[in-house]
Write a structure and sequence with these properties.
Elements (H helix, E strand, L loop, with lengths): L3 E3 L13 E3 L3 E9 L13 H18 L7 E8 L2 H6 L1 H12 L5 E6 L10 E10 L4
Parallel strand pairs: 4-5
Antiparallel strand pairs: 1-2, 3-6, 4-6
Helix pairs in contact: 1-3
């Protein structure tokens, strides 16, 4: 059984996110913020899509280490230093999303921030996943 995506008709059709997710019972995993930080401690990539790709891969590495998969993500917070740039690059970012998460769109919030911990970081991803009991 999968988590149930719920979209309220009166809120309009969501694109690239869900209005709500009803998680089935399971083990909750809180994923810490992931940027385009490589194992050598340096940020990789100078564009938002490049950094999104590595941040997503880092997030999924942590999730998989906990026993989860992308479809177990129930909510995600995306922090960016330039929301207008994010909007301009939606098509490319959508391709990057599908490369890592397929067509699974959890409840998502996008937040513009002044800067992230690493000055070169343009994006940071945080998520909450619920690994269903049936996958243990």
């Amino acid at each position: 059984m999968e988590h149930q995506i719920v979209n309220a008709a009166e809120l309009g059709e969501p694109s690239g996110y869900a209005h709500a997710v009803i998680a089935q019972s399971g083990r909750t995993v809180y994923l810490g913020g992931q940027t385009a930080l490589r194992a050598d401690g340096r940020i990789h990539g100078s564009t938002l899509p490049e950094q999104f790709t590595l941040a997503a891969a880092n997030l999924l590495s942590a999730l998989r280490e906990a026993g989860g998969e992308p479809e177990h993500i129930c909510s995600m917070q995306i922090f960016v230093t330039d929301p207008a740039d994010y909007r301009r690059q939606l098509a490319e970012l959508g391709r990057c999303w599908r490369e890592h998460f397929g067509r699974h769109y959890p409840a998502i919030g996008l937040f513009g921030v002044t800067r992230l911990f690493d000055e070169q970081a343009l994006i940071e991803l945080m998520a909450v996943a619920v690994i269903p009991e049936s996958t243990r």
